[in-house]
Amino acid sequence: MQNVFVKKLILFIAILLCFSCSSGDDDTQPNPDTDSNPNPNKTTTYDADVKAIIDSQCVRCHTVPAVDGAPFPMRNYTETIVGVNRDLVLFVKSTGANVMPPEGRLPQATIDIILDWEADGFKEN
Question: Has this prediction a pTM greater than 0.90?
Answer without folding.
Answer: no
